[in-house]
Amino acid sequence: MTRLSSRLFLVVLAVAPSMVAAQSYPGGGTPPAQGPRRPRNAPITDTLRAHELFVSKDPKDLAGCGAGCATQITRKKQTDSAYAARAKGVMEFQKVTYKSRVDGMEIPAYLFAPLTKKADKHAALVWVHGGVHSDWGIGMWPFVRDAVQKGYVVITPDYRGSTGYGEAHYRAIDYGGKEVDDALSAVDFLKTLNYVDMDRLGIMGWSHGGFITSHILFRYEHPFKAGAAIVPVTNLIFRLSDHGPGYQEDYAPEPGIQGLPYEKTDEYIKRSPVFHVQGLKVPILVHVATNDCDVFFREDQQMVYTLRALKPELAETKIYVDPPVGAGGCGHTFSRRVTRDAMERDDSPEQIDSWSRTWTFFEWNLRPMKR
After folding, report:
1. What residues make up the domain containing 60?
2. What one-character-per-residue DSSP string does 154-190 give?
3. At what angle do helices 141-149 and 349-366 cross, to 10 degrees?
């Protein structure tokens, strides 16, 4: 570079900012001065809004079931009795427990199996209930009956955080953490059953159960040959923002998290299955609904589109456009519709289609009627 050209280069650098300013602000003016920011220690005048937005990250503020624990325990006993009564002459039913691999915590579960066992053993499903503070309810009766009639052994864990087992079990909640290992550990109980073929295991779940199912399938090592995640929770960073403080306050204070996504980004990424799709090595089926009022479609489409992009050879996905819902329901339960007494399915065309695809998917991958 000559002396003259180098001087011109320096002149251009010197005037460039003013040139940008002249282009950006009419009349060649300078950017307007920014007003002073409120100091962090300044008094908050909108105390009501501050109260509404506050979310604690202190584990001592984690909500328990409190006075509702007794009611939940009573309802769980009623569910146990209802399953025992309905299973008579239809299937084998047991209430069992096993230890979680992660810390030895006792995990209760229901076990369903065909009355007549096959000589060459049965395929089995680990079926993970939805909800977070929820449990395996009687509303799943028609569907688990279908599974057993198709030849499956089914185990349904009430992982930590589930309702019906008292305050300690409720407050042990670990969203996307140890609860995943609780569900995976159901496999250890299946190993004790001489009528289960451990080479033909599947896993499935709806909503939060789909979230746990996805987590397990995206791990690099697991024992499952296939899995189904229906209307699954997918992205906790997005979900907590989308649902707001009323939702955040139930999870941010968990001992394993202790903060909101902007404070614990890496932790929330670890607990969000959509970020781990690359680990998938077996077939997965995912069904979602555009009129879902819990796991909004704007959350579920992240999972569907990521699977289609990264794992098209393993992912079978379907988007149901505004499927019909039952009274007071929404698309979140479009494929779990049952009659008022929960004895039979309350089928819509979309529910029939979803279940037909689900059972065909598992028949193809697990061969439940293998002779």
Report:
1. 54-366
2. EEEE--TT-SSS-HHHHHT--TTTHHHHHHHTHHHHH
3. 40
Residue 48's contacts (CB-CB under 8 Å, 6 or more residues apart) are none
Does residue 310 lie within any of the structural domains?
A: yes
Asked if residue 215 is part of any domain, the answer here is yes
142-154 per-position pLDDT tens digit: 999 999 999 999 9
Rounded Cα gap, residues 151 and 231, in angstroms: 25
Domain of 280: which CATH number? Answer: 3.40.50.1820
Is residue 337 in a domain? Answer: yes
The total number of structural domains that make up the chain: 1
Tens of pLDDT, residues 127-179? 999 998 999 999 999 999 999 999 999 999 999 999 999 999 999 999 999 99
DSSP secondary structure code for residue 153 in this structure: E
Q: Considering the domain boundaries, does residue 27 fall inside one?
A: no
On whether the pTM is more than 0.85, the answer is yes
**Furthest-apart CA atoms within the chain: distance in Å:** 99
> Amino acid letter at 327?
A
